[in-house]
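Deadline looming. Please check this record:
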Amino acid sequence: MKLRQAPALDGMRWMTRGVQLLRAQPLTLAGLMGFMLFGLGLLLALPLVGAPLAAALLPALSAGWVQAIETLQAGRRPTPAALFLPFAAPSRRSIALLGGLHALAVAGMFLLAEWVDPDLSTAWRSAMSDGIEDEARLAAFQTLQSGVLLRMLMLVPVALVFWHAPVILARQGGSVARALFASALASFRNLGAFAVYGISWVAADLLLSLTLGGVLAMLGLAAWAMFFAIPAALFFSAAFYASLHATVHGCLDFGSDLPPREAA
């Protein structure tokens, strides 16, 4: 495995690659995304343990998406089982450990964010309260927006450190520490490309929201916004996860490396 230096504009190419894959196989990728979101939704419904379990599964699921895209590029249709292929790899214990570390890192960032910005819970209760004036509700929503944005920004370093690690473990095995080091090095070495990648997705999200909202408003269907927004979000998320393959292979050159075999 070798590190690659990607030009900053490759970030936009990674994003557009996900969109191209979605255009080629919309139902397949949307089906995978729906299956994943449904499963994560069931986990999140569990009290106390749901959110940590979902955070622990995300690294393996991202590696599963990379595998699913490779299956698609080989001319075969991936099934939802492809998302769980990392757990069938010889390095499945390391991948499970990586997931646990990811859950701890996410929890740690949320605790830090709560210490930096403790007003989010209060703002949420105020925004959802019935007996509140419009000015106070607007202020609460502004506090909510800034709090959510802060937490998203604080999770970016965690995402970059863990970004490539599950794929490295699934393909090459090795220690979790080595995979995390290589993943962090690959991500921060290509920070410019990842910045463009993130900006491209944010811009695409805003464009989709404005376009969808404008069309519905012109047709007098504003009341049906949620009905149309849910499938739009499903396809949007599918394109994002499909683009993970381009990000990983844009930063890492696995050459002819094959996933490690089980010991006899």
